[in-house]
Amino acid sequence: MELVPQFPLAETPEDAARAAGRSLFLGHVDFLKGVVAMDGLPPADRVEFCLAGRSNVGKSSLINALTGRKALARTSNTPGRTQEVNFFTLGESHYMVDLPGYGFAEAPVKVVAKWQALLKDYLAGRANLRRVFLLIDGRHGAKEVDEEIMSVLDRAAVPFQTVLTKIDKPKKGELDKALERTRAVLARHPTAYPEIVLTSSEKGEGIETLRAIIAGLE
């Protein structure tokens, strides 16, 4: 009998869940505002989820794939370019939040400190935040910088679910190793949600699964 891993892969959604996900993400989606301080946050009047990940993990590409848009979120090869907490509206029921990429390799120290402080305040003080989707590069698995953000989420008592990106890039053996490495790290973090989603924005893999999971948040 094969043992089920501690953090199994998310199952393919049923038709109704898939339809709900498509309705949410392929309907009326708009950029609302970029926020640089807590007093700029919109009212906490709807279900909110956010996407977090280190710079160049493929977050903007994933947002574009989820929403079926080519340029809803700007993509950049420059680490740390996104310096705002960006809010998007999904109809009148959800906020999708794009957090600044962490691991600012080229950002000034003062800028890094400012955004780390905003991130901690946001995570700890947003009552309608249902889940953080933590993006990790499927070519490498969880790195030290990813574990740092997991610790921030633990301290804020915010549940997070891991999403491996770019799974079309590594060979299967390399992806398996990245998964194994990621699971070992997740086991040390109490707020980690016990399912992992595998995605490829380029190939469309896992997109409907992630849409369905988000549409099911209450």
From TrEMBL:
Species name: Pontivivens ytuae
Family from the record: Belongs to the TRAFAC class TrmE-Era-EngA-EngB-Septin-like GTPase superfamily. EngB GTPase family.
Kindly state a single biological-process term from the GO annotations of this entry.
division septum assembly
Q: What does this protein do?
A: Necessary for normal cell division and for the maintenance of normal septation.
Quote the Pfam families the UniProt record gives.
MMR_HSR1
What is the protein's given name? Probable GTP-binding protein EngB
Q: PANTHER family annotated for this entry?
A: ENGB-TYPE G DOMAIN-CONTAINING PROTEIN, MSS1/TRME-RELATED GTP-BINDING PROTEIN
Gene3D superfamilies listed in its UniProt record: P-loop containing nucleotide triphosphate hydrolases
What UniProt keywords apply to this chain's record, in alphabetical order?
Answer: Cell cycle, Cell division, GTP-binding, Magnesium, Metal-binding, Nucleotide-binding, Septation
